[in-house]
Amino acid sequence: MIQPRLRVQQMPEYHPPLGSRDRLRLDFNENTLACSPAVKTALENISAADLTRYPEREPVEALAARQLGLEPNQVVLTNGVDEAIHVLCQAFLDAGDEMLLPVPTYTMYEIYAAATDATLRKVQAGADFQFPCEALLAEINARTKIVAIANPNSPTGSVATREQILATAQAAPGAVVLVDEAYFHFYGETVIDLVGQVPNLIVARTFSKAYGLAGLRLGLLAGPETLLRWVRRVLSPYSVNSIALAALTAALDDRAYLDWYVVQVKQARGEFLAGLTQLGLEYWPTEANFVLVNIGPAHKQFVASMREHGILVRDRSADPGCDGCVRITIGTPEQMRAALAAIQIYVAGVRA
Asked: How far is CA 108 from CA 167, 237, 310, in A?
């Protein structure tokens, strides 16, 4: 039998939950409502002839760069942030190198690092799930080539401060410090203004969350041209398709819809967390559009109960340090009131 590389055989596998997606989707941290109406109009205006041409991402990269206050050569669009992580690992991780990863965090960092000949070193956060800055800094050495920081972090919702990120970049001058700001819009703090000033800093953004374009797979890397030139060398020139580019152009132009949706989520987050407190459920502070809740040994029963009420939530009990934890996406106020009502029924049943 033909066998793949040993590294591929040893890679962990990612199996997203499938099926029953017609329920209220509070399990993937997506936009739970809809993309901008302007996006729908843009998609309707795509002609059959438009689909015969290879996509050109450069004009849309320039538009995104302008909105971010960056130069076009400091931005590259990718097929979701997953591809961004993948090409970073391919471009910068070699045998003998190390990637540092605070955990728990987004699963795909580990998976894409495992496909390379580098070594993955995990830094466990404490019981409060705060960014383990001191422990991370202590692990940096001459072999460190990538440090990945999700900010806010998933599944915890915790954040690294600007000072902690700068300290990490200074302590690892020979490494790419990736700051994944997938949930930036629900947090409001960013280090993207440091792109070009901090020579080893790369920032990732996604259009799957607040923008509601998860189905089109769109991500972005912002960094100094000296680093992104190697990313572009690895990246497929046509990995971002024409339909996605047309939708992104419309989405970037409709800032009013984006701002409206973010306000809805923040309002819902405050109400929902207050409801969890009233029910006596333990959860961790969050700056994202989700919350990690400690359900305890009955976490599987909780997920099943929510599904019976038409609501999907994500069991994160297998994540490092997350035993008994369930992650719940924050949608609109109306959606979260429905979720809270289902949780109240579950809690009442348990206590009875």
From this structure: 25, 22, 28
Task: Express each pLDDT in 36-80 by its tens digit.
Answer: 999 999 999 999 999 999 999 999 999 999 999 999 999 999 999
> Rg of the chain over CA atoms, in angstroms?
20
Q: Which two tokens stand for residue 78?
A: 């990718």
pLDDT at 34 over 80: yes
Closest C-alpha among 162, 181, 185 to residue 222:
181
Structure tokens at 269: 């987050």
Phi, then psi, of 146 in degrees rounded to 5:
-140, 135
Q: Which domains does the chain have, with CATH numbers?
A: 6-32+256-351 (3.90.1150.10), 37-254 (3.40.640.10)
Task: Report the distance separating Cα 245 and Cα 328, nearest Å.
Answer: 30
Sheet with 282-283: strands ordered across: 282-283, 290-294, 325-329, 314-315
- Torsion angle of C-alpha atoms 159, 153, 130, 179, degrees rounded to 10: -60
Please name every residue paired with 121 in a beta bridge, in sequence order, or none if there are none: 100
Distance between CA atoms of residues 187 and 198, nearest Å: 22
Question: Can the peptide bond before residue 102 be classed as cis, meaning omega within 30 degrees of 0?
Answer: no
Alpha-carbon distance of 194 to 148, in angstroms, equals 16
Of 86, 127, 88, 84, the C-alpha closest to 104 is 127
Positive/negative CA dihedral, 195, 179, 31, 343: negative
**In contact, 127 and 321? CB cutoff 8 Å:** yes
What single-letter DSSP state applies at residue 205?
A: E
Q: Using one digit for the tens of pLDDT, what is the confidence trace for 206-230? A: 999 999 999 999 999 999 999 999 9
Residue type, position 185, single letter:
H
pLDDT, the chain, mean: 96
Mean pLDDT of 165-175: 98
24: β partners: 311
The whole-number pLDDT of residue 20 equals 65
Q: Dihedral through CA 108, CA 264, CA 255, CA 221, nearest 10?
A: -10
Residue 352 has what pLDDT?
A: 79
In this prediction, residue 17 carries a pLDDT of 74
**Which pTM was predicted?**
0.96
